[in-house]
Amino acid sequence: MDITFDHVDFTYQAGTPFAGDGIKDVTATIHDGSYTAIIGHTGSGKSTILQHLNALLKPTKGTVTIGDFKITNETSNKNLKPLRQKVGMVFQFAENQLFEQTVAKDIAFGPKNFGVSEEDAAKLAEQMVKLVGLPDDVLEKSPFDLSGGQMRRVAIAGVLAMQPEVLVLDEPTAGLDPAGRQEMMRMFDQLHKEQGLTIVLVTHQMDDVADYADHVLVMEAGHLVKSGSPREIFSDEDWLNEKQLGVPTTTRMANRLKRRGFVFDPMPLTEAELADQLVPQLGGASRE
Ligand SMILES: Nc1ncnc2c1ncn2[C@@H]1O[C@H](COP(=O)(O)OP(=O)(O)OP(=O)(O)O)[C@@H](O)[C@H]1O
To answer: Does residue 285 have a pLDDT over 70?
Structure first.
């Protein structure tokens, strides 16, 4: 299911003296099966974009097309339930939305609300706990007795239990320690590759963009200012510096080495790519 923005404006509190632009004239496509990262400074419009992906917000102007759904300013809230099922949203600190007495009940809540039987919802909870890498014995525990990282996985399991086609992640690793962050990013990558989920990730972590995304949208002051592959986006160091956007650690290191006479073509994005190009230049055999 492709998601397309066609000249979309969104104005917060439109028609009041407090009106403020969220996004302006955004035209972009998030392709079915892609892993799309949205980057940009605070207030650039990333969250506003995300909330259009399942019509939590509707365009003030323009059209958002999500599979068969065309969302405009005129779209009524009726009949949007199937859309909410297809696009799963994991908000920042998703664990704050847990509320049931047991993990099993919390994960089963969404599917039951969408008409899945008690028995099938319980089965889904068992499957989803596995999918997010938690042991079976958490099912009967209170979510509030788990660690922060485990609680977040339970919240993600609850979103996955709706069996969405698109998983939308708003800074999903915020507040986790580096090991927890890495584990969680690997889990999303696995879901993307093994379950075929389309992923839309908002992040400030450029290493994650380089390691996992295949498409990047760069937002600035409500405008989409660039889109392309991570290689295209991160190859223009001057532009990134001008915009004060970070670059992946590997790219930063390669840029420094380039100034000392090393040659990289293309510029490496990941550690493996850096090693493959660096080792022969240091007189060693490449990894292949
Ligand atoms: N509820 C709101 N009411 C009024 N203006 C808002 C509201 N939410 C966001 N805005 C404004 O819309 C613009 C885009 O904000 P948005 O939250 O989409 O940015 P962001 O890139 O997600 O930022 P962050 O990285 O801080 O989450 C900003 O100018 C912001 O002040």
So the answer is: no
Q: Which of 126, 171, 183, 237 is catalytic?
A: 171
Q: Would the pTM of this model clear 0.95, i.e. be above it? A: no
Measured from CB, residues less than 6 Å from any atom of ligand 1 are 12-13, 20, 22, 40, 42-48
Domain hosting 176: range is 3-247
* Tens digit of each residue's pLDDT (9 = 90 or more) over 24-53: 999 999 999 999 999 999 999 999 999 999
Q: Are residues 139 and 256 in the same domain?
A: no
Closest protein CA for atom 10 of ligand 1: 22
Q: How far is the CA of 59 from the centre of ligand 1 (A)?
A: 15
Q: How many domains is the chain partitioned into structurally? A: 2
Residues 241, 273: one domain?
no
The answer to whether 171 is a known catalytic residue is yes
**Residues 157, 252 within the same domain:** no
Same domain, 195 and 181: yes
Contacts within 8 Å (CB) and 24+ apart, 7-10: 7/61, 7/62, 7/63, 8/52, 8/59, 8/61, 8/62, 8/63, 8/64, 9/59, 9/60, 9/61, 9/62, 10/48, 10/52, 10/57, 10/59, 10/60
229 and 192 part of one domain: yes
Query: Is the predicted pLDDT of residue 118 greater than 90, yes or no?
Result: yes
Residue 21 alpha carbon to ligand 1 centre in Å: 8
